[in-house]
Amino acid sequence: xxxxxxxxxxxxxxxxxxxxxxxxxxxxxxxxxxxxxxxxxxxxxxxxxxxxxxxxxxxxxxxxxxxxxxxxxxxxxxxxxxxxxxxxxxxxxxxxxxxxxxxxxxxxxxxxxxxxxxxxxxxxxxxxxxxxxxxxxxxxxxxxxxxxxxxxxxxxxxxxxxxxxxxxxxxxxxxxxxxxxxxxxxxxxxxxxxxxxxxxxxxxxxxxxxxxxxxxxxxxxxxxxxxxxxxxxxxxxxxxxxxxxxxxxxxxxxxxxxxxxxxxxxxxxxxxxxxxxxxxxxxxxxxxxxxxxxxxxxxxxxxxxxxxxxxxxxxxxxxxxxxxxxxxxxxxxxxxxxxxxxxxxxxxxxxxxxxxxxxxxxxxxxxxxxxxxxxxxxxxxxxxxxxxxxxxxxxxxxxxxxxxxxxxxxxxxxxxxxxxxxxxxxxxxxxxxxxxxxxxxxxxxxxxxxx
Length: 451
Fold this sequence. Notes:
The chain is mainly beta and 451 residues long. Helices cover 9% and strands 40% of the residues. The chain contains five helices and 33 strands. Strand 15 and strand 16 (232-239) form a beta hairpin. The chain starts with 10 loop residues before the first strand and ends in a 7-residue tail after the last strand.
């Protein structure tokens, strides 16, 4: 007889939907105390003297797959079992995280494989893609944000009426922040500003207000960012009365904590990229061509409301005047910024010096370069993860650079949806949004073989 007090390594009989399974208490305990199977044998949850056979009124075929996962660490799904059904059963047993971990391995840019190409349901092109911490994602599309769980099933979208979305970001797996331009819709979700929504239901939770001289003012936000603890929220802002700058809010109370006003010759209100640098406790604000006539990158120190470092390509020599940095990202070393121009050239800025310019790397040209048209609407984008640098191209490929010298080590090519207009990494996945077709690609690292 198996009881919580005497389970040890003894055998346990489980009758699942009429099919009997035998396993060990150790195998079930390996699921963890916070799971149904682990708690079933825990003395804190059960009284000694329980029956030797446990009956569970669930799908036996799915249970066989999950039991094998606990025994071997590998996920082997028969063709006749839909993945959604298995995930439903895994959720019941508390094993959904185990299933997700077995589906794909720890992120490695040089081992990525195309897992899916997901077509959108709305006409036109998406504006941005953002990875969720749990492996899902969202796509900003006009006045809506399409939300997908980690199984790439579409959840209820976030609708903002006639307010076009400028940016979106996950505060956590269940909370989605949306920055939208001012609109004229009659919905309670319409209108510009920054708001928090449930990533599960699409319901509005609260709005983030901006006040100047203690008076609330309407504003149009651009880019969103968080500090390293996700305790502060930042957004570039443009007010109706030339109140340009970057606003900061407390993520818990939603109260405005600061506003960094735009200094002369430093385009902050139009910033289309914000990034927190933990090492220096500063916020990088990037306003890039073609949003502005020239590109600007600044490090903002909110503690003293000062610009700690800045760079601009204003006054570029005539021989280079047709080249502009179109995206920027702070590298994980905390001391450099990588930029890419519209011709797919990579360059680096040294944050330890205000005097230096971009060090363009002739050997770092991205794969598949093409001539850029004057009306080009899709420009290269950058991302970093685990010491690797990722750069999209106007042809739809993604180049992976590794090592201290950022050598080109891999090239990712997927759907024929045109150039990649945005990419995002999170939840051990890379998401790439294409501009010519309403589709995004999902890249995963396959799990290592079990020996």
